[in-house]
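request received
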Amino acid sequence: AQSVTQLDSQVPVFEEAPVELRCNYSSSVSVYLFWYVQYPNQGLQLLLKYLSGSTLVKGINGFEAEFNKSQTSFHLRKPSVHISDTAEYFCAVSPRGSARQLTFGSGTQLTVLP
Amino acid sequence: EAGVTQFPSHSVIEKGQTVTLRCDPISGHDNLYWYRRVMGKEIKFLLHFVKESKQDESGMPNNRFLAERTGGTYSTLKVQPAELEDSGVYFCASSQFPGETQYFGPGTRLLVL
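response:
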């Protein structure tokens, strides 16, 4: 079984400041890792994913995440946020090599302040 | 290419009534997933279809929930009878192959009064 912990439920940050949204996971098997974003009144959109290879993954809208196997983390970062980045962000995992469901964290609400 | 669509976007019903949610996956995607997020909690897996067959329904909460995918295209999720704790957002997702990226719909917001 897998579990995902998003350590911060709310992250307020000023516009143009850097941000890091934290994600830790637990799993007895190797996993794929994902970050999804939900903008107000919209569905979930894939931001980025780690399947294999380079541990630094770049996604849409200037976001990136780094997979750290020893710390079982997959933190999401952006060097300079915009008002439009205000949304809820979800970290998720799924077991490698199978058609298994995603296991989500509880979400982090990022609010970018002017 | 059209994304995953869900209908209705919102539904308000009374306890004991029946509600049917519909999901249309991306064309050509054999894999269809249902998830649910109850208020303030994690998004949780309900079940997974491969074409018209239920591959995994381990997340279905109880027998008041019935999912179907006749013909392997769109899927329905029926809740009968609805209870207060069924309130939440129901998401549908699809993928072309097992284990590949899942694309989500906008969700159906269900409120049971």
